[in-house]
Write a structure and sequence with these properties.
The complex is a heterodimer of chains A (about 180) and B (about 600). Helices cover about 25% and strands about 40% of the residues of chain A. Chain A has about 180 residues and is α+β, with helices and mostly antiparallel strands. The chains are: A alpha+beta (about 180), B alpha/beta (about 600).
Chain lengths: ~180, ~600
């Protein structure tokens, strides 16, 4: 073994990484997003996507949805650390594979090209509820809602067909059925 | 309509309702309205420091020695940034602090005004929570909540940033709400089943060890009493982290010394070989665990902590009990006393072989050192200091480095709240201002800062505070002219390349003391040491004691980086390891 020149221990083997979706209910006050995001950056956690908006205007509650990856231990820590923040009311965490939860992301895609290409694009999008928001002779703006990976795939496919700009909301989540997460 | 009060008045009314007696602070433009109001509140005394970092550490010393939250008052901009080190220190060591900072008037926020900084932004990662008061109506509510957040659950620092116009604005005062038991995040979450499981593990253990930390101290003096009762009932060996010293008597036969990087041979080997590890209020810090993969490989692990996020953060445990240390221990004690199955006696038989093994480890005398008749050995100095002060109720603070470890190893604490040291952040310059705060809280007690000459120079200006308020703190400087711990690591890890760790042009500490208007004492050889220490203790006033010690002494035992607990480097007394420490060779 190489002699360590550090007063700190050497890193140990990394565990398997899982993708998780965190849903965090917070008081909608100044700086609350910075607290949540700062927790992630300060402790070296990952943020793959982030979606946030106020969901209850009378109680001033915002709902933050964060997609992250980490070892089971790190995922556990993220949850416990989030719960310690004062403006945080509750934290839910779901595995990406969780069948009881719906994950959706919306994307706006702008394709620039001739009619042929645009039609091809629309065909490719068909299975993801495409809505045409704007159309000119040379371009089209399509709205689709799908899973993250599906949008990833779509973007790749549409690139050669003239995709020039994509805007995505980041994933949001909701449990299936009548149950409400407490 | 009830009377209207200014923001500055409300600050003091809140402090009065929170039973604050002392605030540590430094005035400036953005807090002048609050300072103006000070004269109208005679129950609150202001301690003027010489640098805001000193205010923060003094408040920490006050809080840790008294169990009450420390209060800091600073101005905007540099006032706030100067206190950041102390806030971070308090955050790492779970010390309750309430810091009130001034801010530029609301309409100037965001304009890069004079002495403006984003205080809540800067302190967000080093406080439990912070607030920028934008509306005078929120002020009293926020201040009361600040005290609550700082002192409940796992304690820690909070900051309230008050713009100057808010300090002038007028509003009704709201009294603190009567304790309503809400906010599940702060309370005990353990069940009787978990206590039963704990007792089950205890009854099965053959090689157990209890490992306690600062959480026991933070839980209050009653927790230390409960710990003593619990440990004596079950007869297990007990070791402690740096922060936990004093919770269990240091001279008790069941106490096997501090563990971790500079812990005793018996404590670290017990941690490595045990079959049951009970962590009470400690957090598996990296100075404790060493190599994680090989940390206590054969044991079942129990973790008792009030902070759920401490559980499984570093070490996976088999049983987690989330709750206040005292409450958990009390329910365990009750259960043991109720069970009439003779757990108390059977336990002691179960672990008798284990105790024999521990006795064998003890014979290594891992804290031993080769004393000298010519130069003062730093360990010897700490030992003499202990012997000459142990008969009175003494409070010890330290800076950070070798002297801190020697103090932890050789000074034996018998009561909680007597030992104030910066463990998590490792802040050089902590001890002197902390001693100021301790002496404020305990005006008639002996307060000693065991210091290093490099550390103490970082906050030396607070001597002036000590002199101003007649605080008879004793600064016991183990002067080896090096940043000793840096030098030690350079010796062991960097082929003795002592890069920038030697302090040239040190001040004459005796003259320095005199310049501050206090007493200076110098000791240069072992023969005069005792007499000089007595002179220091007997002097009724602040003292700087320049104890000139062997500059080449290293702090042993030591777990080298990346090694498990059972691979310690022992001191020069242990012949096998002489080859590791060249210095050891020279001495034998």
């Amino acid at each position: 073994m190489v002699k360590s020149k550090s007063a700190y221990s050497i890193p140990t083997k990394l565990g398997k990484l899982d993708t998780h979706i965190f849903v965090v209910w917070v008081d909608n006050e100044a700086g609350v997003l910075a607290r949540v995001v700062g927790l992630f950056s300060g402790r070296g956690y990952n943020i793959e996507s982030l979606a946030v908006a106020e969901v209850d205007q009378t109680k001033n509650i915002s709902r933050i949805t964060i997609v992250t990856t980490g070892t089971p231990q790190v995922i556990d820590q993220i949850k416990l650390q989030l719960k310690k923040l004062v403006p945080v009311h509750k934290v839910a965490d779901f595995k990406r594979e969780d069948k009881k939860v719906i994950f959706k992301e919306m994307a706006l895609l702008k394709v620039v090209g001739n009619k042929k290409k645009i039609e091809k694009c629309l065909k490719v999008c068909k299975s993801f509820n495409p809505v045409i928001l704007d159309k000119t002779k040379l371009s089209v703006v399509i709205q689709i809602t799908a899973l993250r990976r599906e949008i990833d795939k779509m973007s790749k496919k549409l690139k050669p067909l003239g995709l020039t700009s994509a805007s995505r909301t980041g994933a949001i989540a909701m449990t299936r059925g009548a149950e409400v997460f407490k | 309509m009830s009377k209207l009060y200014s923001g500055a008045e409300i600050v003091f009314m809140c402090l009065e309702d929170q039973d604050v007696e002392y605030i540590f602070g430094y005035p400036g433009g953005a807090v002048l309205p609050i300072y103006d109001e000070l004269k109208n509140h005679s129950s609150i005394k202001h301690i003027l420091v010489r640098h805001e970092q000193g205010a923060g550490h003094a408040a920490e010393g006050y809080a840790r020695s008294s169990g009450k939250p420390g209060v800091v008052l600073v101005t905007s901009g540099p006032g706030a940034t100067n206190v950041v080190t102390a806030l971070t220190d308090a955050y790492m060591d779970s010390v309750p602090l309430v810091c009130i900072s001034g801010q530029v008037p609301t309409h100037l926020i965001g304009t890069d005004a004079f002495q403006e900084c984003d205080t809540t932004g800067i302190t967000r990662p080093c406080t439990k929570h912070n607030w920028l008061v934008k509306d005078i109506k929120d002020l009293s509510k926020i201040l009361h909540e600040a005290f609550k957040v700082a002192t409940t659950g796992r304690p820690g620092p909070v900051l309230v940033d008050i713009p100057k116009d808010i300090q002038f604005a007028k509003v009704n005062y709201l009294k603190p709400k009567k304790e309503k038991k809400t906010s599940g995040k702060l309370h005990n979450k353990f069940s009787q089943n978990e206590i039963d499981e704990l007792l089950n593990l205890i009854s099965k253990a053959r090689k157990p060890v209890i490992y306690t930390g600062g959480g026991v101290i933070n839980s209050g003096p009653k927790a230390s009493d409960s710990l003593r009762e619990f440990v004596r009932l079950i007869g297990f060996p007990i070791t402690s982290t740096l922060q936990g010293l004093g919770a269990f008597p240091g001279d008790d036969s069941q106490f096997i010394g501090m563990l971790g990087m500079h812990g005793t041979y018996e404590a670290n080997n017990a941690m490595h070989d045990c079959d049951l590890l009970i962590n009470i209020g400690a957090r598996f810090d990296d100075r404790i665990t060493g190599k994680i993969d090989e940390f206590s490989p054969k044991s079942k692990k129990v973790h008792i902590d009030i902070d759920p996020s401490s559980i499984n953060k570093i070490i996976k445990v088999d049983l987690a009990i989330v709750g206040d240390v005292n409450e958990v221990l009390q329910s365990a004690i009750k259960k043991i006393n109720k069970k009439q199955n003779g757990l108390k006696t059977s336990n002691k038989q179960n672990v008798s072989k284990w105790w024999e093994q521990i006795q064998k480890w003890r014979t290594k005398d891992s804290l031993g050192f080769i004393n000298s008749e010519k130069t003062i050995k730093p360990q010897h100095a700490v030992k003499r200091l202990y012997e000459l002060t142990k008969n009175q109720d003494t409070f010890i603070t330290t800076e950070v480095g070798q002297h801190q470890m020697w103090a932890a190893q050789h000074y034996k604490f018998n009561k909680p709240n007597r030992w104030m040291t910066s463990g998590g952040l490792g802040t050089m310059g902590y001890g002197l201002p902390a001693a100021v705060g301790v002496q404020i809280a305990h005006p008639d007690k002996l307060v000693i800062d065991i210091a290093g000459e490099a550390s103490v120079l970082m906050t030396m200006q607070e001597m002036s505070t000590a002199v101003q308020y007649n605080l008879p703190i004793k600064i016991f400087v183990l002067n080896n002219q090096y940043m000793g711990m840096v030098r030690q690591w350079q010796e062991l890890l960097h082929e003795k390349n002592y890069s920038e760790s030697y302090s040239e042009a040190l001040p004459d500490f005796v003259k320095l003391a005199e310049a501050y208007g206090c007493k200076g004492i110098k000791a240069q050889n072992p023969n005069e040491l005792d007499e000089k220490i007595k002179e220091m203790v007997d002097h009724n006033g602040p003292v700087i004691f320049d104890c000139q010690v062997d500059p080449n002494e290293n702090c042993f035992p030591m777990i080298p980086s990346g090694k498990p607990h059972n691979q310690m480097i022992l001191g020069p007394n242990d012949k096998k390891d002489n080859k590791i420490t060249g210095k050891g060779k020279a001495l034998v």
